[in-house]
Design a protein that fits this description.
Layout: E1 2-5, E2 11-12, E3 16-20, E4 24-28, E5 39-42, E6 52-54, E7 57-58, E8 61-62, E9 66-68, E10 72-75, H1 79-111, H2 120-134, H3 138-151, H4 158-169, H5 173-186, H6 193-209
Helix pairs in contact: 1-5, 2-3, 3-4, 4-5, 5-6
């Protein structure tokens, strides 16, 4: 069993002391001072990532199952099923809570006479996200859109439509649905509202069948 953080190249040869909660998975190297290399993976942090299975072969025989996304990679027999299940569970839980929170943000936005404009920093992130999307680097494009919305969640409503489409291309239909619903909360009377809702219907069946 092993773990590697793709962003930092931090690596554990052996995984021990696994702890699983509704919000995270945590483990260490199992050594006496293992607390120094404790790894905690929060499900919310990989919510917008597509998690994939890889099955390597050694001498014609399957040796283990590996699971990975753009943030980390793990080789552990039961971990893939666990993370898939927990991501699905947390995704549903998070989406419900996030939409409740965002509904108030959308109501405040609609009450504004003068809508906020996109800042220069946001513009940079949005253009970078679009460039990454054009290069078919969907996961990175999602990250850059998220950065833009962290600065101001309502200055570019159309961005949620774009983000939803990118998430669907990445195969993350739960995240696509969440962001398309945010778009409709901000612009319920948009000219493409019907099209946006129809996309949600299509993604919902893909989530169910995956």
């Amino acid at each position: 069993m092993s773990y590697k953080n793709e962003a930092t190249s931090f690596y554990l040869n052996s995984i021990h002391n696994e702890e699983v909660t509704d919000d995270f998975i945590r483990f260490t190297s199992g050594k006496k001072d293992g607390y120094k290399d404790t790894v905690t993976i929060y499900f919310k942090d990989v919510l917008n990532s597509r998690i994939e299975y890889f099955t390597p072969f050694r001498n014609g025989e399957t040796c283990y199952t590996k699971i990975g996304c753009h943030k980390f990679c793990c080789c552990i027999r039961e971990f893939p099923d666990l993370l898939y299940y927990m991501q699905y569970y947390y995704g549903k839980k998070y989406s419900i809570e996030e939409l409740v929170r965002f509904k108030q943000i959308a109501e405040n936005y609609q009450a504004l006479i003068e809508k906020p404009s996109i800042s220069e920093e946001q513009r940079k992130y949005i253009l970078q996200a679009n460039a990454l999307n054009d290069n078919k680097d969907y996961q990175s494009a999602i990250q850059y859109y998220d950065k833009a919305f962290t600065i101001n969640p309502v200055s570019y409503p159309a961005g949620y439509y774009n983000l939803a489409l990118i998430a669907s291309l990445a195969g993350n239909y739960n995240y696509a649905i969440l962001n398309m619903k945010k778009y409709l909360l901000l612009l319920p009377n948009a000219q493409d509202a019907r099209e946006a809702q129809d996309k949600i219907y299509g993604w919902e069946v893909l989530v169910t069948n995956n």
